[in-house]
Amino acid sequence: MKNLFSVVFTLIVTTAFSQGVRCGTVFSGNLDELLISHAPVSRSVITIPVVFHIVWRDSSDNIPDARITSQLDVLNTDFRALNDQLKYLSSAKRSLAADMEIEFCLAAVDPQGIPTTGILRYKSEVENIGTQNSPTIPSKAFIKHKNLGGADAWDTQRYLNIWVGKFQDGAILAESKFPWDNLPEEDGIRIDPAYVGVNCNGSPKKQFALGRTLTHEVGHYLGLLHPWSADCTTGDYVEDTPPQRSPYYGCMPQVMDDACGSVPLVENFMQFSDDACLALFTHGQKERVYQMLLQYRPLLLNNNISCFKPTFADRLTDDNVRIYPNPTSHCISIDLKLNRESNIKVEIFDTSGKLILKDNVKVLLLRPIELSFTQSGIYFIRLTGNENTLVRKVVVM
Length: 397
Fold this sequence. Notes:
Blueprint: H1 4-13, H2 32-35, E1 46-56, H3 65-79, H4 91-94, E2 102-107, E3 119-123, E4 160-164, E5 174-176, E6 189-191, H5 212-221, H6 283-296, H7 298-301, E7 307-308, E8 321-324, E9 331-336, E10 344-350, E11 355-361, E12 366-370, E13 377-385, E14 388-396
Parallel strand pairs: 1-2, 1-3, 1-4, 4-6
Antiparallel strand pairs: 2-7, 5-6, 8-9, 9-12, 10-11, 10-13, 13-14
């Protein structure tokens, strides 16, 4: 029986070079800022409070809380090196993977200390507000300003502000500000709602439907660059990301950049690869991020903003398992809120009782299960672990 991920990977490889311009973030800083080094120090996990400003014109862009929650799951999975794709990499690539020791949570209080959910919603009449900019220099993003039809930022030194609003068709998917960009009222990330969280059924570009566009943009927000450069020498100024001349797309497990004479780390979150194939940040990128936090975002290191943090149980129950979307046409995600020591077996059966797929998953992990290779119909997912078994019905359209 094939491992479930092997089936997923085989399917997605066929879409290699299905290019999509994911990111609109452009490096515009002083290179000296990236050459400053700090000796690695022992530190505790950093928790960054997040506020989502959802600015919508059409109701379909007013995405539900569940998509926001799934996005936070993806971020925490990726930044804590809990990504299940890691185990399919070579030992050499796995050795590069770093636990960034950064976690994200929805803010529980606003800048005035008033309780909040961390998810704010605004109705706007501005079309394609996510990509609308004023002609002034520096230009203002409409979505980031109330007087332009958007929403004003919360204290950008203490919160990560994420604006969610419709982008013009054919445009980028998201854009971030670097730590050194001196525009406090603009600091943060803007992203098209179709690419927030796990959006199996509604994403126009299925290769970017698993929430890793925001992982990529948060990397920029924390000071990371794209790893390529035309001269093969500079790239992202991080030593353990191999040089490459241009971006790669799709899912390419092994590719040689003949121009630079190296094998690019196409699984790095700062690449343009498909979501299902992205797997890691490196130790060098971890050091760079901490350097940027010390230099430009020090209040995030010692933040006392209250957050909504998930609680984790020891036993597999209906309360700590979420399987979505259902019905689905593209993928099912299993979200498990269990202690990290837990091992969960996943099995999928058809209505005749035939075992279709099986896999083992880690916990605290948003696990995408690709169902597009099945026929439409009813399936049953059985989860076994922690001395308990759950069965859920899934409808594939």
